[in-house]
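In keeping with the milestone schedule agreed at the kick-off meeting, the structural modelling team has produced records for the first pair of proteins. Each record is given below as a sequence line and a structure-token line. The laboratory manager (R.T.) confirmed that both were archived under the project's standard naming scheme.
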Amino acid sequence: MNELRYVYAVCRPFEAALQADLVGVGGAPLKQLEHGGLVAVLSRVPEADFGYEPLRAHLEDLDWLTATARAHQAVIAALTTVTCPLPLRLGTVFRDDSGVRTMLEDEGDQLRELLARIDGCVEWGVKVYAEPEAQQAPSEPAAAGQAASGRDYLRMRRTRQQGADRLWARADSFAQELHTDLTARAAATRLHRPQNPELSRATGRNILNGAYLVGRSQSEEFVECVERTKDQEPGLRVELTGPWAAYSFSDPNGDEEEAW
């Protein structure tokens, strides 16, 4: 059976040992391939699953994709405890060890630059959601149904819409201020597109979807800053995730967000 090389991340050489029972995709053992002062963390995978055409087909299989993504993330998370890995995209494969070495050689300068940027840092995610339902009094739906006239009904609808408009404006101002505060505490930031609620299944409208590259030694202060904002504004929800490997900062073509 032909085997390909599945690469999870590129790191600087590190001496700390990974957990003994850590395995990669499909339960395969991990290997470190060093070249030019860089280390590629990889495992072997069957070409029958990870060749170009089979992989395209598998990406339509949600169960397969979920299992592979979990295995991929588990390796990255383990690496994050011992070094600052540069995560590669899910399904990054090469024909053989020589192909991996060629990648490290050809992209070495860029990889070293990215590793220098994230050195000593982790990524935190911060989201702000506006929830107009939380602002609506429990009696409002009933009152709307008991309106004495069409004019009363329209007036109540207009009042609710004006309340929602005020919430969106307040949410935008709150999110902008929070992002500015967090940016001052981060080495780099990324503003992602607001999440689609149908895909994320999160309630409310996503106003802020930010990623922040923060030094490990500054992370406690960063987390405390976010925690202080929770429950600060009625109808707004703040969510913090992390610490993660620097996924949002591993793309050399990604533009840094410095303003709202």
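The second protein of the pair:
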Amino acid sequence: MTRSPTGLALICIAFLAACAPRPDPSATPPAPAVPADVLAKYGAEQDGTRVIPAVDPKYLSAEKARQEVDYWTEEAPGTIIVDPWARKLYFVQKNNRALRYTVAVGEEGRGFTGEAHIPYQRDWPSWRPTQNMINDNPQLYGPVKDGLEGGLENPLGARALYLHKGNRDTFYRIHGTMQPWSIGEATSAGCIRLWNQDIVDLAARVKSGTHVVVLSQAESGKGTVPPGTPLPHHPQDPIPSKGAAL
């Protein structure tokens, strides 16, 4: 029987497909499932008249979730220690322990080091871009130059902690975010931001006058290892160009 050219082509394709090496499903393991307790921490949350949306599980991991960890410091319990270079924030507990939160760091977040205190905080704070932000990117910030009321679309998120040095506002903020994907990353703008669920948790623990220590690049990793142990090295990601996001 004579086979048509089309029929021969189909037979050849089928033969080659049968002989081709099959991909090994074990070569690319699926992303680890997010633990149930982590999903519960970052589920939708009622906050007064607003509902904080759940964090998309693709942005979550056991390592990034808030948790209690070993932490060696001479600072008193209740102190906040921010490590912008490792993108972590620690709320000091007793007995060499701390609550650890993952943060996103903007250019302003690496512009302040040293000690400060928190005289007050705000729930669902309003926000206004600085004149420098408007000058740098008028197309992005010009339309909101008069500021935004507090809410889910506000860059400060559900809470903001305002840092002062003496009686002077440092303009350094620890706050929530409208960009959950940014947590754990270096970002273009903003100070120190947390998932809204985390800033609500942290703000509930903070009292007026809370002492804050912001580590320098040379101090990054301090407290995460016992005294006398070399500090861990944290590769530094470049801060994205200005204006990439609010």
